[in-house]
Amino acid sequence: EAQVTQNPRYLITVTGKKLTVTCSQNMNHEYMSWYRQDPGLGLRQIYYSMNVEVTDKGDVPEGYKVSRKEKRNFPLILESPSPNQTSLYFCASAFSSGTSTGELFFGEGSRLTVL
Amino acid sequence: SQQGEEDPQALSIQEGENATMNCSYKTSINNLQWYRQNSGRGLVHLILIRSNEREKHSGRLRVTLDTSKKSSSLLITASRAADTASYFCATDRKIKAAGNKLTFGGGTRVLVKP
Prior knowledge:
The complex is a heterodimer of chains A (115) and B (114).
Chain A: E1 4-7, E2 10-13, E3 19-25, E4 31-38, E5 42-51, E6 54-57, E7 65-66, E8 76-78, E9 87-94, E10 105-106, E11 110-114
Parallel strand pairs in A: 2-11
Antiparallel strand pairs in A: 1-3, 3-8, 4-5, 4-9, 5-6, 7-8, 9-10, 9-11
Chain B: E1 4-7, E2 10-14, E3 19-25, E4 31-37, E5 44-50, E6 55-58, E7 61-66, E8 71-76, E9 85-96, E10 99-104, E11 108-113
Parallel strand pairs in B: 2-11
Antiparallel strand pairs in B: 1-3, 3-8, 4-5, 4-9, 6-7, 7-8, 9-10, 9-11
């Protein structure tokens, strides 16, 4: 079954404690992206990756890191989480021809609370 | 501000009525996509319309694209209570020689009353 898998789905942590949210897709997609969703602010892009070893900042990259060492995985790292990073996070992937991005497939989301 | 912005922010209709929502954007695009999200769940792709297309249909959904006005509309005909969700447009645009970016608008919350 084609899917994007995020873990953990729910996490409560404390300020400053490094955490990683994993994302894996089994569709051989080139394009992967992380979004955060906050009430009234829609989906804001954190980082995206056009392919292996190619990552770019989205609209709200501060406080986050990513890596793309393998095509299927795109982890999101919060080196020193702060309460303003409390949010619902989505990972998504798509085929990308280099000239356009196709349909995005989304994970189920990771709800993160930073105390 | 965001590349894509939906209008209205919220919409309440009776079952059986049509629902129309609009998306405006600022720069030229490769394609425009519409997604649906049920509360707190992952988004689900509905329709992709390319910049050289003007209209697309999928079941009860109809999407139009007017590149001269930089706007798109999503029409849901004969709405059902199960159509209650948030709907987002996303614009795919070229940002550099070998890169595209897909950016979402703020969404339209649709409530279909039985």
